[in-house]
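Ticket reopened. Same input as before:
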Amino acid sequence: MTITDIPTELHFEVELFYARQQHLLDGGDIPGFTAAFTEDAVFAVRPAALLTGRQAIGEAMSGLVARFAADGITRHHWFGMRHLTHTADGALRVVYYAMVSHTAADGSVTREPSSVVVDELVRAGDGGLLVASRTITPDTVPG
Amino acid sequence: MTITDIPTELHFEVELFYARQQHLLDGGDIPGFTAAFTEDAVFAVRPAALLTGRQAIGEAMSGLVARFAADGITRHHWFGMRHLTHTADGALRVVYYAMVSHTAADGSVTREPSSVVVDELVRAGDGGLLVASRTITPDTVPG
Amino acid sequence: MTITDIPTELHFEVELFYARQQHLLDGGDIPGFTAAFTEDAVFAVRPAALLTGRQAIGEAMSGLVARFAADGITRHHWFGMRHLTHTADGALRVVYYAMVSHTAADGSVTREPSSVVVDELVRAGDGGLLVASRTITPDTVPG
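Engineering reply: fixed in the latest deploy. New output:
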């Protein structure tokens, strides 16, 4: 099974990109989190939710973060099993699994259903990576 | 603690190899999954189960996949904490942790006991990687 | 979002370093585990626990390992979402998420609250990596 021709350096850049973005989200830094999307990014949660643009994504995430904080729940996003390929137009396509842990103040831990996520990453003007689109398929949605 | 002399490129190839193989399995593509094993691969689940050969592995996995699909359960395999060394005969020995999440149609999430897995990887004729043996020790089995 | 200037080889060395150290701990090899810390390492679990020195870390870990073994519980440490930067004095700062799975003899699986961990790694005399400090913030502790 031959896999990919993505350079090693790019693999690592992608790994750190995701770690950094989720640290920001889990730490409640919504402007930092949304800055890793393109201005016109598309954020979809199948089958129905669709956010378009950095601002809409930020508003939705702020609402979520505030709700969990009010409930005293600490969240962490874990990504894994990441695979990378190039799309025909030169973007980077990243497929991975995501799970979110919820820890209540009393220490009880629950997990949301896992998801399969497909991202398209592009280069920003400063040379860094940005998410141009993110499509999340929760395990409860038929693939 | 000095660790390994595995080249960086090989590390990444291995990482993507596992992501790809498990995406295929979790997506129900059994021929794609088994194609990542050698024809005479050995697949063991300690203490007692032992499958030999790509075909036997495929049949066992098809049965599992059909059973979970009938129960409306979506499964995802997560691998992590991977360590690589070379064996004396030049194969690649990979030791890692595995866990499997089960999501029911109502969104409830359960997890099977984690496992420690030891794989031996070899080169296929086309230059890609193949699993020559996989030995799974579930946490419920004394190490 | 530009991320880091850590060389790719160092990224992988760090990844394997953590896998190896946790395999040793989960396998009950406390001397092997503590050998990955500096002699005067600081091991903190917020808000209050603080161990100083390889010997104190080893004694505390031996106690934990013996307790879980007596209860028939198999533990595995999973690290993920790792981010690396250099500190001003040339050490390596690693921020990551950790979770621990507990499997009882009957196969039931529970998880401790996740943690955010910040490590500082330095070079040993033999060229390998060592943990100079580890600070663990469980999800139940306000960040």
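The first strand of chain B starts at residue 37 and ends at 45. Chain B has one domain: 8-138. Please confirm and we'll close it.
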